[in-house]
Amino acid sequence: MGDARTLEFDVVGVAEAGAIRILRISAADADLATQRAQDEGLRVLSCQPRPSGFFWTGNTSKSNTVRLDIALFAHELGALLNAGLGIIDGIETLAEKERSSETSRVLGRLVRALKEGRNFSAAMRDRPDVFPQLLIASIAASEQTGDMAAALGRYSSNFETLREIRSKAFGAAVYPLMLLGVGGVVVLFLLGVVVPKFSTLIESSRGEIPFASMMLINVGKTINLHPQIMGGALICVLLSLISAFRRASRAHWNLPILEKLPLVGILIRMFRHAQFYRTSSMLIEGGISAVRAFEMCSSLLSPGDNKQLLRAVVAMREGCAIGPALQGVGLADPVALRMLTVAQRTGQLAEILARIASFQENTLARSIEVATRLFEPVLMLLIGLIIGAIVVLMYLPIFDIASSLQ
Fold first, then answer.
1. Are 307 and 319 in contact (CB under 8 A)?
2. What local confidence, expressed as pLDDT, does residue 60 receive?
3. pTM as predicted
4. What are the extents of the domains in the chain?
5. What mean pLDDT comes out for the span 335-356?
6. Looking at residue 55, what is its pLDDT?
7. pLDDT above 50 for 61
8. Model confidence at 255, in pLDDT bands (50, 70, 90)?
9. In terms of DSSP H, where are the helices of 40-147?
10. CB 102 within 8 A of CB 65
């Protein structure tokens, strides 16, 4: 028998100098990938299987079937802690109400680890596929300051805010996608059904047919004579779109091609910046240093901005102020620069970062609304022109026939 199948894992760790490193390691399982990262001198924060293709790759064990709403978990656990329950009692309560047996077992393992004397953050690190790195870091910081309930509340609020912005963006795209779908169906119906029937009448007249109309008739006949091929092509296109959507979602939409799209790329970059500022604010408020928080949030940015952030972090370590360091690499506009300058004087960095995030989120919401109002009429006009062109090209030979009869 051969060796076990080799899988790919995304490993996030801290190097000796304190820098965050992200490695892609091939190994038989997560434990071996973690061990290899530790052999390279990293303190591993998370190790997650990397998806590939249309389906999830990685271990097919039950661990991959855990479906835990992290924001809801953080909110409910924080509420239980504020109500006076201990951390063990709170997690046991959440495990009892959980409907998923596997998720309930994960929470049960957390309880057993806590009863054995382990820290909550250390127990969560055992399941990086369930608990995000940022939540683990927030909990680890709160264990030093004693405000775990507040840390859970901040994480839940931050997660819900970002999810609300993401929902608005997807909601704005629903109508254009529906318009494209309906318009595509109408165009295919005209080409595959209506045009071939008109072609019989037009060709029986034996009159001269304009070149554009002849091209339209040939396309319609091809679609009408080979419906299986067209259906297969449509299914392939649909599956390709679904696969591309799944890959983009798993990559947290950090795809270079999206950055290059006109208008869309600007909106995506603005969302990532707002996400970076808000999450950094949450971590700093929880007691994590600014430089460390920026390093931990680097994965929220695009690959290009991620590299620029690392340059800014190096400048901060060398004594440069936060505002000029971020502006120098294009991660802070003039408004953010002035607000960060104020934060340097007042010491309210977490609050200022949250305000910058709110400012950018409001700008993003307005930009999405404007883009939607502009794009929808343009899309409707384009679909109308295509359908109108098909109708005109169908009737043009008939007009010629009528003129010849007169």
1. no
2. 34
3. 0.64
4. 7-49, 70-159, 163-405
5. 88
6. 31
7. no
8. low
9. 70-82, 87-97, 101-115, 120-125, 133-145
10. yes
Helix (H) or strand (E) holding 199: helix 195-204
Q: Please list the helix, strand and coil fractions of the chain in percent, rounded to the nearest 5, in that order.
A: 75, 5, 20
Start-end of H helices in 251-348: 256-260, 264-285, 290-296, 303-317, 322-328, 334-346
Contact 12/299 with Cβ under 8 angstroms?
Answer: yes
pLDDT band at 175 (very low <50, low <70, confident <90, very high): confident
Q: How many other C-beta atoms lie within 10 A of the C-beta of residue 121?
A: 18
Q: Find out whether 328 and 315 touch, Cβ atoms under 8 Å.
A: yes
Contact present, 37 and 11 (Cβ < 8 Å): yes
Closest CA to 22 of 288, 262, 254: 254
Q: Please measure the distance between the N-terminal and C-terminal CA atoms of the chain and give it in whole angstroms.
A: 85
CA angle 310, 314, 315 (to 5 degrees): 115
**Long-range Cβ pairs for the range 184-188 (8 Å, 24+):** 186/383, 186/387, 187/383, 187/386, 187/387, 187/390, 188/223, 188/230
DSSP string, 317-341: HTT--HHHHHHHTTS--HHHHHHHH
- Does 165 score more than 80 pLDDT? no
Q: How far apart are CA 125 and CA 78, in angstroms?
A: 19
Cα radius of gyration rounded to whole Å, the chain: 28
Confidence band, pLDDT 50/70/90 cuts, at residue 63 = very low
Per the CB < 8 A criterion, the answer to whether 246 and 255 are in contact is no
Structure token digits, residue 371: 């883009």
What's at 97, amino acid-wise? Answer: K
Instruction: Note the pLDDT of residue 352.
Output: 92
CA-closest candidate to residue 194, choices 14, 355, 364, 395: 395
Q: Which residue has the higher pLDDT, 381 or 133?
A: 381
Q: Over the chain, what is the mean pLDDT?
A: 79
Euclidean distance between CA atoms 348 and 342, whole angstroms: 8
Backbone conformation region of residue 316, classed left if phi is above 0, alpha if psi is from -120 to 50, else beta? alpha
If one looks up domain 70-159 in CATH, what number appears?
1.20.81.30
